[in-house]
Amino acid sequence: MTTRHLALFAAMTTLALAGCGGESDPRPQGGAVTGDVTVLAAASLTESFTRIGEDFEAANPGVRVVFSFAGSSALANQIDQGAPADVFASASPANMTTVVDAGNGDGNPRVFVRNQLVIAVPDGNPDGVSGLTDLTRPDVKVALCAEQVPCGAAARRALDTAGLRLTPVTLEQDVKAALSKVRLGEVDAALVYRTDARAADDDVDGIDFPESGGAINDYPIVVLRNAPNKPAARAFVDHVLSGPGQAVLTAAGFQAP
């Protein structure tokens, strides 16, 4: 073999090795994703995203999904202060906007579900609450989310639509905390998402009220700009938007966007 042929053979061998995933190509083979993917998600997504995370891990054995659930405003602040995370799922566009405007989103957020408020009362509705007006009764203790939290902002819109003013006995930092006050018997009612009332069906009843129709929250999701594991982050978002992901969310009581 001539010197020229040897050089050509060496070059072709190098290219072939690179294409086979040698040390110079750290990408997983077959389009698979691996490693941890950290998802910061609104508290109201706890049950459905936990299920979606399990399904995603089953479909991608090399991945571990790590969740942090809290109020969307608190999560947005964490992201803007540099907390390491891969995905943000917010319970309102307003909190997502703060993240995107700070330059911390990678691409455009996608609205993946919507959610609507109900009045959560103890199982059996002992105080006979049937609508928002009943929450203004002096004998009814009410919990609301703080207004900077999406469920609190939605509650304010619903109350404004009804032309009502009420003084809650507590303002909570996420919807799970407001619901917990009802479950523990510390309040007689709370304005929470339909999905949360459904998840706590054995302990509370969820009462629909017409004003909630004007206070529906869109839920956007985005991969974060500084995501440590962008391939897995993008794959997780794709799974949330997929048919199986949407089926889990619909079963939990979320509405299609």
Question: What do you see in this structure?
Answer:
There is one protein chain. Strands 2-1-3-10-4 form a five-stranded mixed beta sheet, sandwiched between helices. Strands 7-6-8-5-9 form a five-stranded mixed beta sheet. The N and C termini lie far apart (66 Å). By secondary structure, it is of the alpha/beta class. Helix 2 runs antiparallel to helix 9 and helix 3 packs parallel to helix 4. It is 38% helix and 23% strand. It has nine helices and ten strands.
Structural class: alpha/beta
Global shape:
elongated
Secondary-structure element order, N to C: HEHEHEHEEEHEHEHEEHH
Query: Mean pLDDT score, rounded?
Result: 89
Task: Compute the CA-based radius of gyration.
Answer: 24 Å
- Sheet with the most strands: spatial strand order: 2-1-3-10-4
Number of helices: 9
Percent strand equals: 15-25%
Terminus-to-terminus distance: 66 Å
In percent, how helical is the residue content?
25-40%
What is the count of β-strands? 10
Low-pLDDT stretches are 1-30
Biggest sheet record: 5 strands, mixed
Describe the structure using short key phrases.
257 residues; alpha/beta; five-stranded mixed beta sheet; 9 helices; 38% helix; 23% strand; elongated; disordered N terminus
Short summary:
This protein is α/β, with parallel strands linked by helices. Helices cover 38% and strands 23% of the residues.
Summarize the SSE layout with pairings.
Blueprint: H1 3-19, E1 35-42, H2 46-59, E2 63-70, H3 72-80, E3 87-89, H4 93-101, E4 105-115, E5 117-122, E6 142-145, H5 150-162, E7 170-172, H6 175-183, E8 189-193, H7 194-199, E9 204-207, E10 217-224, H8 230-241, H9 243-251
Parallel strand pairs: 1-2, 1-3, 6-7, 6-8
Antiparallel strand pairs: 3-10, 4-10, 5-8, 5-9
Helix pairs in contact: 2-9, 3-4
